[in-house]
Amino acid sequence: MTKKNVWPAYSPAQEKKLEELADSYKAFLSLCKTERECTDYFREEAEKYGYQSLEDKIRAGAPLLPGDKVYAEGMGKTIALFRIGTKPVEEGMNILCAHIDSPRLDIKQNPLYEDTELSYLDTHYYGGIKKYQWVALPLALHGLVVKKDGTKIPIVVGEDPADPVLYVTDLLIHLADKQMARKASEVVTGENLDILIGSRPINMDLDEEKDEEEKSEKEAVKKGILKILKDKYDIEEEDFLSAEIEVVPAGPARDCGLDRSMIAGYGHDDRVCAYPSFLAMMETEDAGKTSCCLLVDKEEIGSVGATGMESMFFENAVAELLALCGYSSNLSVRRTLARSRMLSSDVSAAYDPAYAEAFEKKNSAYFGRGLVLNKYTGARGKSGSNDANAEYLADLRRIFDGNEVAFQTAELGKVDFGGGGTIAYIAALYGMEVVDSGVAVLSMHAPWEVISKADLYEAFKGYRAFLKDA
């Protein structure tokens, strides 16, 4: 049973829609490289479509009626969007869920130091990465500094062509015999992933207000960096204590391949699912069941914390929503969630013939064959997975086939080669029907990943069909 590549079946009109979606996605992916930036983007775009803050509705005591559109935001890093359907909310929702965090390097709280007249920022990597992939690349800083008085200072350095980029050094091949003999996991260690940010000592003698101790040559490069931070951003060294600054690959997402059939960029995992989920939500109108698009943080480190799927954020938002719809009991919350259906949209590993030994061909995802359904993920003996039931999968087949959505099924590589998890099992704890679905990715978790434009387009079609017909 082999699914066909969808490219030959596209009409000129479909190809035009596909390219329009790909262009808008590339723009989003280039702009939004952190969970905060994604949340800001989705909130601002949703408001253009008429979505209102759930908090504002709560304060006003305004009831929610069919057709109303609201969003709830969690600490600026996660967002849930709802469109009230004509059926009672307690009958359940159709939920699209994806995560908006991606593997990266995080700046430590006490990061700035100088060594032999080179200045660095110390980092701690976030999520599962091959550390050696992050050296010798142009890197950018994205984040937020919050001063003691509450002032918020956004930071983006390395994206504008006029900006400088940052860099993690590597050992030259001529001296790397011992390094090359190490295991891949030890070629570069976590503490070696420090960001080179300066090498020019400041000339303190030009500043007459400085005393003699301050004018000393000690850590003159670091002092120069601190002066730049103060002059440009009004940031002191202590302000790093209340900062969230992420190190990500610099530069925009781009078409990949001579035929321009693919997109290379940072953060496909999992923004390639989050973006079409959001667009499908914006285009869904007059659905019988209440629709929801939930975009969460912290999946790459286990869905923990106040903005991860394991938090109470989503459950609390649903409880507030139900209260404004006339339901006031905890039982209503439980009923709503248990009767809901979710596509837990996360990326799948695309079959790579260069590493064929890691894949089982009959049960792999392939570029150009559409949206991927993973009945289960987990590791080896399905450990840590949500195993979707057959009845739910049968109904999804009906929905996708009825809406001419190309889809395929897959596992995450060979059984004993490893594995991975998603948020699906967390949502399943409520008793709702959940299955993993998403887009196939090459070089997953690398600084630059690759996806097929056709799969992005079919994912969008699939998410829209799910909200309409599930």
Question: How does this model look, in words?
Answer:
It is built from twelve helices and 22 strands. The protein is of the alpha/beta class. The chain has two domains: 300 residues, Aminopeptidase (3-Layer(aba) Sandwich); 146 residues, Aminopeptidase i, Domain 2 (Roll). The chain has a nine-stranded mixed beta sheet, sandwiched between helices. It has a six-stranded antiparallel beta sheet with strand order 8-7-10-5-6-9. Strands 11-12-22-21-15 form a five-stranded mixed beta sheet. Helix 7 packs across helix 12. It is globular, with a radius of gyration of 24 Å. It starts with 11 loop residues before the first helix and ends with a helix.
Summarize the structure.
This protein is α/β, with parallel strands linked by helices.
Topology overview:
Elements: H1 12-31, H2 35-48, E1 52-53, H3 54-60, E2 69-74, E3 78-83, E4 93-99, E5 104-115, E6 118-126, E7 139-146, E8 152-157, H4 177-180, H5 184-187, E9 195-198, H6 220-233, E10 243-249, E11 254-256, E12 262-265, H7 268-283, E13 290-296, H8 313-324, H9 330-338, E14 341-345, E15 348-349, E16 371-374, E17 378-379, H10 390-402, E18 407-409, E19 419-420, H11 424-428, E20 433-438, E21 440-442, E22 449-452, H12 453-469
Parallel strand pairs: 1-2, 4-13, 4-14, 14-20, 15-21, 16-18
Antiparallel strand pairs: 2-3, 3-13, 5-6, 5-10, 6-9, 7-8, 7-10, 11-12, 12-22, 16-20, 17-19, 21-22
Keywords:
alpha/beta, 24% strand, globular, Aminopeptidase, 470 residues, nine-stranded mixed beta sheet, six-stranded antiparallel beta sheet, 29% helix
